[in-house]
Fold each of these.
Amino acid sequence: MAGGRVFSCNNTNSVGGSNNLSVLLQSQRVPSSSEPMDPLFIPRPGSSPYSFFVSGTRSMVSFEDVHGGNRSFFRSFDEEENGDEDLDEYFHQPEKKRRLTVDQVQFLEKSFEVENKLEPERKTQLAKELGLQPRQVAIWFQNRRARWKTKQLEKDYDTLQASFNTLKDDYGNLLKEKDKLKQEVLQLTDKLVMKEKNNSELSDVNTVCQEPPQKPVDSDSPHSSYPFEPDQSDTSQDEEDNLSKALFQPSSYIFPKLEDNDYSDPPASSCSYGFHVEDHAFWSSAY
DNA sequence: TTGTGTTTTATTGCCTCC
DNA sequence: GGAGGCAATAAAACACAA
């Protein structure tokens, strides 16, 4: 026996002595494999609805009182007249496993819902109510806790799985967003380069011509009326607006993480939009 | 009926707590 | 050291398809 624990059959559901044995009925019988799980117990008048006594034909009985031991076995009351031979046979028959009745299980389930741990007093009470061995009640609770734990693990797993799927989706969306922003940055960078190029070409022209301007050149003014003013048609007002928006919108501060030089350094010139693209501190802090 | 997978009851061994 | 809890496991009982 486990840990030196004793599985004592001390059931006290005594049913009147039909023979000279003070038969202590353990309130269970063994259903045969083909037998339906009909209730084994009939409520005893005056007792709780879950106090039972054996009504079946095959019951485990204890001769504790008579033989002073803990012997238990399966006894067919239909065959009591067979006498000592059967007794001997049953004494040497290993105890079979028995299922609890639906009622017993329901009662235990309710009790488990209230409290899944079993204090000795409650165990005894339950055993008494159900006509089971306290040990059986303890075992049932132990197994029930194990089942509950398994279910809980399954629940936790499902929760984690759902959480993982959400995160995976979010990650996928972020990757898409990142690609989109990357494309945007590339386009804007190209535009900047073009603009710088045009500006430098204009300067060259000015130097070569050495022609004093009719009016002061305001290089900062994008709408100068200077005759050699570059054609700005490639950068429409709308596009410029978009450019400004793209660069200054909060979301645009989050630049995609650059991977393994998949993104060349920004142009080493100052951008006229308020930040220095070569500012590595900014770029690195941006992601 | 039988083979097989699942569930339930029970045991064993180890661990912790008092 | 004993009582009780838990994990692992055995084995009976059960469900169900073929």
Note: The CA atoms of residues 206 and 212 of chain A lie 9 Å apart.
Amino acid sequence: MDESVNKTLNFIEDIIEEDIRNGKHGGRVHTRFPPEPNGYLHIGHAKSICLNFGLALKYKGKTNLRFDDTNPVTEETEYVESIKQDIQWLGFSWEDREFYASDYFEQLFQFAVQLIKKGKAYVDDLSAEEIAKYKKSPTEAGLESPFRNRNIEENLDLFFKMRDGKFQEGEKVLRAKIDMGSPNMHMRDPILYRILYKPHHRTGTEWCIYPMYDFAHGQSDSIEGITHSICTLEFENHRPLYNWCIENLGIFPSQQIEFARLNLSYTVMSKRKLLQLVRENYVEGWDDPRMPTLCGLRRRGYTPEAIRHFTNLVGIARRDNVIDLALLEFAVREDLNKRATRVMAIFDPLKVILTNYENQIEQLEIENNPEDPEAGKRLVPFGKVLYIEQEDFMENPVDKYFRLTKDGMVRLKGAYIVKCEEIIKDNNGKVIELHCSYIQNSKSGQDQSGLKPKATIHWVEESNAINAELRLYDRLFTVPDPDDQELDFKAFINKDSLVKIKAAKVEPFLKSTKPGNFYQFIRKAYFATDLDSTSENLIFNRTVNLKDSWQKTQDK
RNA sequence: UGACCCAUGGUGUAACGGUAGCACUAGUGAUUUUGGUUCAUUCAGUUAAGGUUCGAAUCCUUAUGGGUCAACCA
């Protein structure tokens, strides 16, 4: 798929090309993707991953993977592995540059010492509550801590004692000495280090003081020689502090550039809310196919190509945005249309008996994908007893209904034209069986009948049909903006976001399918074989419906 | 009520002082052994008011609307 959708440059590419023209950093481009290992990656992260790795690819630069692991309370190795797997699955490589902010703890400590020596940082004895109180509010200047003017020797002594575990958690912090009157709250003597007696997933119990984000991120960028440090808009107010640290330490000047994060309609994206959905069992796990997580989308049947294509389509800018879920669906349809093998599956079987057909099985050759001649053909068994969809027959057809009706004709895909002769009903009047005749000389590819039925429908031969479970997934929320409602977002969960069809009939070709394989179930939807699927118990997840202009006209 | 940021069709994104374009969505038609695909086509936009300029979506001012910031989270 052609992923270079944008012929024009986005604003970050503008900056980079300008930097290259000016010979900044020798024209070098080096980005990084800096996840915190405290959760699973979602489609929003995919935007950032594609941006960072994509920029490096485009400008012949490099991208580091760096885990931003400065908070031992929430971070775990389990997440590190899933994050790495997801990035690789998306199709990007950080080569040998897998880094951790925790790799730099000693260096960061020395940076802090440097600041103290310059009189730019101090140890504060105020409690968390007091510090918050002293900071005041954005509209009101803050107050300086009584400990702000400790001398350098005392600060140094105290800071080393903090490191040596001489104090309790919360007893002391290291703060930058900047400006308590700044209109930017982040510049009101931000906390640089806090005491935490918590084992770290990589450094164990080596440290009992940990740097804050603002004292770790920019320096990590600088240490790695990152030229363009791309983050989301909410870090915009941190930029003066990012630059302050780099300037006062006199280290490599990485440049922070912010862009607007991805929001998707009918979806929530915050880690907190996704965690809630999992914890409170609204979904079956982080990889539930309804989740916007990469593992969820993968299980749903989304391909890396589709996701990369999607991130190209959404663009990069600085204004808040909500992307229509339809665009994500468009991206996956466009990819799958070209690549998915077409097969036949009956969701809601209606038995059809071909009264004039021999009691035999005929193997018909049917194309695997009309969009791809290379995809070849497969043999599909045909016989006297078949299943078609209940919805493909109407005794009293509505206007413009092209499918099978009493005395009407349709073509069976890749097979013959059939004519409905007789309807069998149960005691409730429900149609349970159709007796049809087939037109002998109407065989697909060698049709001599001259008949032109208006519709072609899919079917499955009864004796060779295999049972399968179909999981029909739909959007998780009933409103486009669940985040932006009076009520809690969970009040808008779509009760029908998963409908399981236990007894679908599929053609025998699918017997040997493997988890992750994807198909188009003709005239219905794209499906992917679920992780839990076995040849004895086939399970398919609906990725996305086919467009359905008939359904649309019916809905009106 | 402070600082910073943002504002182009329903959605997203271009136009870098000189013809407002592209994609999605929605509509219509053609093609089609998938009511799919493909193709053609239609609807629809510069937040407002001033100013600078021969000329403003673009520059300036003000207003309006929206976002971010007051974790020892990232």
Note: The two ends of chain A are 35 Å apart (CA to CA).
